[in-house]
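Posting here for the record, re: zinc ion.
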Amino acid sequence: MSELHKFIFDGLPVRGMLVRLTDAWRDILERRREAGGFPAAVTELLGEMTAAAVLMQGNIKFNGALILQVQGDGPVKLAVAEVQSDLSLRATATVVGEVAADAPLSHMVNVNNQGRCAITLDPTDRLPGVQPYQGVVPLYGDRGEKLERLSEVLEHYMLQSEQLDTTLVLAADEHMAAGLLIQRLPLQGEANLAGSGVSRADEDQIGRNEDYNRIAILAKSLKREELLSLDADTILHRLFWEEKLLRFAPNEGASGPRFACTCSRERVSGMLRSLGRDEVESILAEREQVEVGCDFCGAQYRYDAVDAARVFLAQEASPPTSQRVQ
Ligand SMILES: [Zn+2]
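Prediction output follows.
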């Protein structure tokens, strides 16, 4: 069962989260198997992204989708992990060409330092025409050096956007996607990824809190194999047995991380409308149906001439709602 554990260090300005995606992660890979699956290195990257997206969603008070996206300039053109506030999630990647089993991050997505990582917060109640918040970070460090770990990229991002020290340990294989997050608590109020409410005092604290620094070093000692094979209780005990942890009831089962796709025929119809009647009719002139597949879950949506006519008829009756495909 997939699970998200939240905890705080009693009396210290430090909190943590541990996510273990088992069935939720295997559901994502299963949907892809028919299309040939992902190369091993891409499985690892996408699993780490999915675990990180759950941790980031779990870390903020926000009603909507958190979308973690890497747009690459290598064979991995795009990798996306999307987590809703109820922790339902989906993920996919677009791979063009070969990826070696042990390909480092830069070989997959940052060959010419043009790769980008974007974090989007798309609120459920967003009005049409309003852009969701998006933060973008490069995949290289302060001196232009290519970053080879997704955790480093995201730590950098969270430090910039929240002004809070954050430690991330991520790991994934074809059975499990898991992650540990340790974060210094803001001196007052809630931190958020959109960067508002950041206080000067929090900025001054960066790197200086000894409790956080000690706990971060313990967290960083967690090995990939341990994160992938040990249960949550064992991991937390092994790392923090000398600390006093206060643990909350985990999110698991129906309230835990689980695979669910948000695609629908209605959204695909909206996309066809934005393509325009001429475009759709020209496709129908060449073949019997317009076919749109969902990259996340593999669902196929088919429209024949009658269906397509209905899509555009509906448009005349009511204004278009969403431009999003999936
Ligand atoms: Zn879908």
